[in-house]
Structure formats: structure tokens, C-alpha cells
Amino acid sequence: xxxxxxxxxxxxxxxxxxxxxxxxxxxxxxxxxxxxxxxxxxxxxxxxxxxxxxxxxxxxxxxxxxxxxxxxxxxxxxxxxxxxxxxxxxxxxxxxxxxxxxxxxxxxxxxxxxxxxxxxxxxxxxxxxxxxxxxxxxxxxxxxxxxxxxxxxxxxxx
Length: 158
Prior knowledge:
single chain; six-stranded antiparallel beta sheet; Chemotaxis protein chec
């Protein structure tokens, strides 16, 4: 199944609601099977590691929590990451129109204004402030080849 994908310019309304673009989670063609989001579904909204917000289906958030729970609670780094992940996290319900309400605290932490960039990031959907996204894209353009090479490099030099 294809994960969430695409980049979209979106708007947060005066009440703090964001319409999740249908094209990010449903196929444009009937033959394309993607993870879809249903009205009434509860998802998990969390402050992401790069300053954006990350929206997760419950099953994906459960995998992240399961991984974190395997770490020893006596480890200071574990406690830091565990605290970070959970203090800036909120369940959100998708309404009939396909919108989520982004809590004010999370909007402030991610510096979200009215205009935002919404990105499908495979297992999650990211919500970026326009300014932060532009800065990220600028930096990414300088180093994407090096990052990809480091991730996909094998010991055989292929």
C-alpha cells in the first residue's frame, strides 16, 4: 500500500482547523491503493523532530510508542525523547469535512500561521509553517545527495 505523499499549500481557518487534502491520502486513480483517512477517525498529532507537526494514524503511533518502550527508562536520552514525544502530542478527530482541529499550543510550537505546507511523508502527514518549510527545503537542496548516499551506501561500493 502506498503511504501518504504529495505537497500541498493549505490554510488553517480562524478556528484552528486544517482540511487534510484528499489527494494526500486517497488515490487519484482507482487502481492506486493508498492509506486513506476516514471522517470520524482519531489520529495522533505531535510536534515533529524538525519543527513541523506530524499527524499519524493510530496504528503508526502505536509502533512508535512500542519502539520507545523498548528503551530503558533509566537512560536519560530515553526520558528526554519520551517526554518530548508525549508532552507535545494530542489525539485529533477528523470531522465530516476531512478537517482536524490543531490545538493552539501545537500551532504555537510549530509557528503555524494561516498559510501552511502539508506534506505526505509515507507513514505520517507533516504540517509546516511556510517559513520553516522554505528554510528546510533550502538546506535540503544542499545536502540531499550526501544524505541519500549515506543511507543507501552498502559495503560493496555499488
